[in-house]
Each structure stands twice: as C-alpha cells, then as structure tokens.
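User: Structure please.
Assistant: Input sequence and predicted structure:
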Amino acid sequence: MRANGEPAPVRMPAWPWERLPYGHWLGRLALAALMLVCAWALAYWPLTLAATLLAAAGVGLAILIWPPLGLALLAVAVPFGSLRTVNLGPARLGGEEVVLAATAAAWLVRQLARRSLQLAWPAFAGAGLVLLGAMLLSFLPASSLVLAAKEMLKWVELWLAAVLVVNLVDARSGLLLVLALLAAAAAEGLHGLYQFFAQVGPPGFVLM
C-alpha cells in the first residue's frame, strides 16, 4: 500500500508460468533445457538447420511472452507459408499452421497460468460452428476423405484465427496487425509482379 493509502498496483508477471506453483523455477528449467537443445543443434546439426531451430525457438519464446505477435506473423505467413512446407503423410504443414498453433498454445498457456479461462467469441462463431458441422456431414459422400479433411482444416484455421483475434487484439496490437496485413499484401503484390515480368512460377500463372 502506498503512503497516501492507495493500494499498490499489482505487478503482472512477464512470464505466463510465474503464477503456477514453483513456476519461477520451472521457467528457468525450461529455458535452460531450450538453451541446451539449441547448443546441441549448433554442434551436431547442419548450420542452416540449426539456425532455423534457433530462429524458431526465438520466435516461439516471443509469441509466448506476447501472443498478439503471433497474429502479426500469421498475417505474413499466410501468403508466403506455402513456399516452404513439410510433408506429414498426406498432409502438408506450412508456416501458417505452425504460427497459428504456436499462438493458440501461447494464449492457452497464459490463460491456464492465470487459472481463469476468459473466452470471447466473434459474432460469427456460432455460424462458423454450424458450417463446420455441415462440412462434417459432407464427409459421408466424399470420394476422398483426405482431401475433404484438408479443405475443412482451412476453415477450422480461419475460425480459430478469428477467435484468437477477438481474445488477443487490443489497440496497440491491432495497429501492429493492420501494419502486418498491409505489409504482407504489398509483398505478395510485388512477388506477383516479379513472377509476371520474369516469367517464373507455376506454368498455370503464365499469361504471356
């Protein structure tokens, strides 16, 4: 309490796990383990792969500290995530799936650390669930369940991204998200101009 009788402001922990039992030590242990993994990767993995791991670890830690950053990165990953994908059986894992999953996990971890799940729903959340339910019913006559599941996954990602925007974005992060969307759109436009004038890219994109 301050000298004038007003209660002192409550300090919000910078790390989401600080509210958990022994969270301070668990956080230190997790960071130490992450540093050991990165050091091992630098020693034994190819430099490019190790650098990718370090960059991913840094981005993941930044998203954990401030989850709205993940939404800004998602805006950039959506148009360019398909440039580098990983095949997992019949599915392809791109940058947008990784960033979206990391952002959702960071938001959920912070909610669990606060021991209160405060969830806001976008206006079309109910309609989105109805659409997803209808898409599930369309699996019955589908000739390829794999292709149907891949298409439905896109709509699930869109619905999840909308839920995260409603729960994470405020005035400051909203400005960052808008700037990221504009930058991603401009970069995608420049990439399209390069493909047009240099005549590169998929054969179906060639116009002249």
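Helices lie at 23-44, 47-65, 68-80, 95-113, 125-137, 145-168, 171-198.
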